[in-house]
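Table S2 (text version). Query chain:
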Amino acid sequence: LQELDPALDAARDAATASKRVESLVNTAHVVRRLRHAILEDDWDEIQTIIGNAAMLAATSAFASEAEAEINLCLEELEDRKLQKLLVGAMSRQGTKYLKDAIALSQTTVLIHSEQTQNFISTATFLAEIRGAFEAGEMDRIQAIALMAEDLTLTKAQSEEVKGIIVEAKDVLAIRNLKSAINSSGRAIMVNGHLDTTSVSRSRLLPA
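Corresponding structure-token output:
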């Protein structure tokens, strides 16, 4: 900002009206607003400024010297939007919003920050374990849960995962016990008499 203001004053005092000077003056004003918004951490304003820069560029009224700075801010802006989307999806129940957010993250050509990459990994994990639970694939849940060892989960996410694991174990235990009780090792009636020759505890004990 310290260098932009004197340069703008000098251009105004020179009263030069060439297309090149006009383009640079327009660009300098945009860059000045952009840097001020960055200092204020005002990303709504930054989005507006980037839009203004795009409109100037469409009429060849934006200097190429500032394109790199604009693109850098655009990448940061899109990265922040994706982070917000992922955090929102992870806080909601089910897998729909998670899958949508993950799919969007895979369509962008922008380079994700390390924090966003971590959010994507966590969202992918939650989508996997929630999806397995919703599909009744309880035997897969324990294996999927091992993925969490390399992730940094929030307290709410950790509690959700623990709850899923506990419920999955409960469902598997009930399923195994029912199957064992109804197995071929039970006593049956033959000609009005209880036949115990086929009685077996071999499936009951493991269950």
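Notes on Table S2: The mean pLDDT is 82. Residues 83 and 116 are 6 Å apart (CA to CA).
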